[in-house]
Design goal:
Blueprint lengths: L1 H41 L3 E4 L5 E4 L6 H12 L8 H25 L7 H18 L1 H12 L7 H17 L3 H30 L6 H31 L7 H12 L8 H26 L3
Antiparallel strand pairs: 1-2
Helix pairs in contact: 1-2, 1-3, 1-10, 3-4, 3-5, 4-7, 5-6, 7-8, 8-9, 8-10
């Protein structure tokens, strides 16, 4: 019995290490896409002061991805495209490590050898929900730091400012929207990924896929999952940046629809899809390669 527990602990530790390493690689490479996505989603949103000193939310503007990219590079230099890298690493490295560790534990203890699409959907969603709730404060810091709206000097400065002005509630703003985005994304992604990978193995008549083939399977799964969960990402970003301006998810959705129509719910879809697709594909490719080296698969 003790051996089994020890073996499981070592196995989970290896899964966390492989996931964290894959998360480091993907975050370093694709951070600019995440920054541009955040800027696009809040582009045109600003707080204007009234004579009475109350904040009023102003919505407007419709610049594209390339404009934001060039604008950031011009004003903040190329290094500005990696603004928010520290909070991104703080979230993604342990987050991806926790995700793969949790997913490995769930599939090993509760999953079947040939999981159905429903089973894959449930496993992926459960793993991401656990990670999303645990690391939400870091997600809030990351979104605000990347937005350029708040003039924080550092992550610590951002943490203290949010804590003093909004308390715990501010650090957990957008909780429902985050879970509504992350759980379906991971569930849908894992469902498509396992299905596409299975079809690829069948078509190629190979028991294992090489890194390039794994990456393509991951990229295809990422496109489907990103498009289906984009509206939740837009709502989540608005709620985390301006928690006092909206009464909840429904109010945020209504505000977005009133200002930009249905297309407003898909703002930032190109950079987010690029980042999420490439990041997820690279993470799974690196994770699976390391897993084989560590004897997890």
């Amino acid at each position: 019995m003790g051996r089994g527990v020890k073996h499981d602990t070592i196995s989970l530790g290896k899964a966390f290490f492989a996931g964290a390493l894959s998360g480091t690689c993907s975050t370093l490479l694709f951070q600019p896409f995440d920054l541009v996505k955040t800027r696009l989603q809040v582009e045109g949103l600003s707080l204007t002061s009234t004579p009475a000193g109350t904040g009023k939310l102003k919505i407007g503007g419709n610049n594209g991805m390339l404009y934001i990219l060039c604008s950031v590079a011009r004003r903040e230099h190329i290094v500005g495209l990696w603004r928010g890298l520290v909070p991104s690493l703080s979230r993604c490295v342990p987050g991806i490590g926790m995700y793969f560790c949790t997913l490995h534990g769930l599939t090993q203890n509760f999953g079947s050898k040939e999981p159905s699409m429903g089973e894959s959907l449930l496993m992926g969603a459960c793993a991401r929900t656990i990670v999303g709730v645990t690391l939400l404060p870091v997600t809030v810091l990351k979104a605000r730091y990347e937005s350029g709206v708040f003039k924080y000097n550092s992550m610590f400065h951002a943490l203290i400012s949010i804590w003093r002005s909004e308390g715990v509630r501010g650090l957990y703003s957008g909780l429902l929207a985050t879970v509504a985005r992350d759980a379906p994304f991971s569930g849908i992604y894992f469902m498509f990924y396992t299905r596409i990978k299975g079809l690829a193995k069948y078509e190629l008549r190979s028991p294992e896929l090489n890194p390039a083939e794994t990456f393509v399977c991951g990229a295809l799964a990422g496109v489907f999952a990103s498009i289906l969960t984009q509206p939740a990402d837009v709502v989540k970003t608005r709620l985390q940046l301006y928690p006092h301006k909206f009464t909840g998810n429904g109010d945020a959705v209504s505000s977005i629809l009133k200002a930009d129509g249905v297309t407003g719910l898909f703002k930032g879809i190109v950079p987010r899809t690029l980042r999420k697709t490439l990041m997820a594909a690279l993470s799974w490719t690196v994770y699976e390669q390391i897993s084989r080296k560590l004897g997890l698969t």
